[in-house]
Amino acid sequence: MNYMPGTASLIQDIDKKHLVLLRDGRTLIGYLRSIDQFANLVLHQTVERIHVSKKYGDIPRGIFVVRGENVVLLGEIDLEKESDTPLQQVSIEEILEEQRVEQQARQESEKLKVQALKERGLSVPRADTLDEY
Amino acid sequence: ILEDYLLVEDAPLLEEMAEEDEELDLYNEMTFGLDRDSTEEDATKPLIPLETSPELAKGVAEETEAGEELEPGVAEQLEELGEHQEEGGMEVEVEQVSLELEEEEEELGTEEQEEDQEPCEEPNDLGDPAVMRAVQSKPTLESQDSAVLESRIGACWAEFGKEDMVAMDPAVWGSCPGSIPPHHVLEDKAILQVLERPPPSTNVALDFLGSPVQRGYGGSPRLKHPNLRLMSPKSFPQRFLQQTAGYASPTPFQPMSPNISSPSRPLAMHFGPMSPSLDPALFFSPSASGQLNLSTPSHMTQLHPQHQRILTQRQQQGGQAQSISPKKLWSPKVDPYAGLMTSKEKDWVIKVEMIQLQSENMDDDYYYQAYYHRLERKQVEEELLGGRSKQEPPKLVTPFIQKVETYDSVVRIAGSLGQVAVSTCYSPRRAIDAVHHALVEEAAGSHRLRALHRIEKLFLQLLEVEEAQRKTSLAPEKQQPCCQEQKSQEVEHIYQALQIRACSSEEEAEDEFLQLLCVRKGKKLTARLLPHLTREQAEKILLIITHHLPFLMKKDVLDESLPLLYSPLNEVVSGMTFSRLIEVLQEMTRPLPESPELPLAMALKNQFGISLLYSLLSHGERLLSSDMPLEPRSGDFETWTDTVFLVARELSQVPKASLVEPLFLPSNLLSLFCRYLDKQTIHHLEAKME
């Protein structure tokens, strides 16, 4: 920002640890190694972090090349504050299990909701037929 | 000397790596400019391919021994190393050549001159077609004015240290701590070089050379030992690249001179000397260092003038400014993968970003524009208050890069599966838009998807119309009428595409226009289009909407986006004739086949409906109470009175709980009712309407 005030650039973020949130909901944490004009990212030593309530688990993934349009947001991680979190890290197996359980619960409640709305004559449009792109 | 460098045991592996490096170099060179990159790649690898070519060593050895005698050796070296250098760009050669500290610049001068004689055109043009021209590099003064070279090199070389050479990012090499106090030394290895604008007295062609005194280099880690020799043949010259006279830093933005007609190569390649008419281009260091000696030649860029000013100011202050940025504590353990993205690449990205800022479209870079507008306004205020002399913004005259009007960012090769990516892209927005347009073309299956596609397509057309209109409003007076005509044609086209036609209530779900109106964006499109339409067309839309109001209201229960249409429709209503108004009102009072309720009654329970109704009534009242001749048709007044009574009746009957608050409550409604109704009813209605 300092050389182009009024604009944002990822140049200053290179070689720093970042947290990247993707459009599909995944959270990646890795060192930002390279970017381009589309904000495509090269993440190094990337870890995919799965969060379920107060727990999280990290899956090491290696190197990611992320297409810019799939990034929702990203931010630098302060290495000093990184460990200062109320969240509890658990093993991969555990977090995957927790995630599965959570997904199941969500799907069930969604089913009930849709049913209830249908009974009242309302239909919530499915995601693939939403109005705006 | 050799022992300063790492030795690699694996010779064959090295060779393979070297080959890959060559290809990468070629690619990098084409995209970013000279092949500095092999060095930089090497730097990040723990192993450094170490092939000290005998000639190189010889050349270096020779240099250290003698002065002028080295010329031939060096020249030879140049030829060797020149294989990847296709550019005739001076600085490249110069960079390649700058081998030694002690080297006399005459040598360099000669080398450069020799190289001057072999201008090359980049054969494989991977350049961005958006770049129309490239400037042919010309021999620069640096090759002729040895005095400048010498001072610069001398200053830089004093600072080299051997321990940093291996691991660090060559970008840092560019930093010449020469005249910079030690505390300016930046520890961030991924720092770009910073070049300062050379003193105005130097010859223009030399402009991109900075004066060593002013040079605000980011500073390198203290480099003590000048023994930079004997690195791998590729890396060796490149390390010195930075030190060259000229611009050690990667890729300055060298604005292209518009009158150069030989596009020898795309901009990508050209971060080189430009035609003499250009001013120094500069580089900015994106590092955290406070020393941003950034300035772009004012007449060369189309950056916002305020931005321009900031850059020049910074550059002026650069000399005095101390390193402002907090020195980030580099973590004690050195990140071995740092610097993967070379400074050249970073510069390139920054360059593309800057190019993107230069857009004629006001919608792009809203924040950039807004920031500078605000800054300007503040400055103007300050000037008014402080009574300072007005700072003239630098005049933006020539574009810094000429973009081609038609740009095929998406290349389709027959028989290929999809699109071929273009390797360089100076207009990412255009590229993204191109893809977007491609997507929209796809034929969609379902009704709804087709409606959505139509909306998108028409919306884009409307945006283009508005854009064109914005531009013509800025254009000189005489051009405006023909643009107006074109605009009306395009608006007409959009209107026709909406397929507005009368339809019965059975056909409502199938009607194309109504389908559009059921979608929020379709309403937005219509709302945005209305101001551009002729009165007749706009009134037609109003009529259709009012006619199908129950249907639309029903469809809008979830979305609640009908109010989007209120404002533009209100405008349409305020311009209607009395007869037309009656026609519209009749739509609201006609009985419906499926329901005992009048549309009007339904409207009272819908925010948009009630607002529209009030708007219509208010306009009628306004017309009646004005002195304007109404020219009513026969029966109009009766219909009007009937309508008012109907409204009053419905209003009194509808329970207050069901009555929705309108978007706007016109003030003359009560007076309207007063005309026709008794006091008691009026009070009742008043209470309801509150």
TrEMBL record, chain A:
One Pfam family in the UniProt entry: LSM
GO CC annotation terms, alphabetical: Lsm1-7-Pat1 complex; P-body; ribonucleoprotein complex
Subcellular location: Cytoplasm; Cytoplasm, P-body
CDD domains linked to this entry: LSm1
Family label: Belongs to the snRNP Sm proteins family.
Function: Probably involved with other LSm subunits in the general process of degradation of mRNAs. Plays a role in the degradation of histone mRNAs, the only eukaryotic mRNAs that are not polyadenylated. Probably also part of an LSm subunits-containing complex involved in the general process of mRNA degradation.
Protein name: U6 snRNA-associated Sm-like protein LSm1
Native source organism of the sequence: Lophotis ruficrista
Name of the encoding gene: Lsm1
UniProtKB/TrEMBL annotation, chain B:
Domain mRNA decay factor PAT1: 413-550
Listed GO CC annotations: nucleus; P-body
UniProt region (Disordered), positions on chain: 35-128
Location of this chain's protein in the cell: Cytoplasm; Nucleus
GO biological process: deadenylation-dependent decapping of nuclear-transcribed mRNA; P-body assembly
Keyword flag RNA-binding: yes
One Pfam family this sequence matches: PAT1
Biased composition regions of type Acidic residues, renumbered to the chain: 62-71, 88-125
Keywords attached to this entry: Cytoplasm, Nucleus, RNA-binding
Recorded GO MF terms: RNA binding
Superkingdom field: Eukaryota
Matches recorded under PANTHER family: PROTEIN PAT1 HOMOLOG 2, TOPOISOMERASE II-ASSOCIATED PROTEIN PAT1
Family listed: Belongs to the PAT1 family.
Protein name (Swiss-Prot/TrEMBL): PATL2 protein
Organism for this UniProt entry: Lophotis ruficrista
Taxonomic lineage: Eukaryota, Metazoa, Chordata, Craniata, Vertebrata
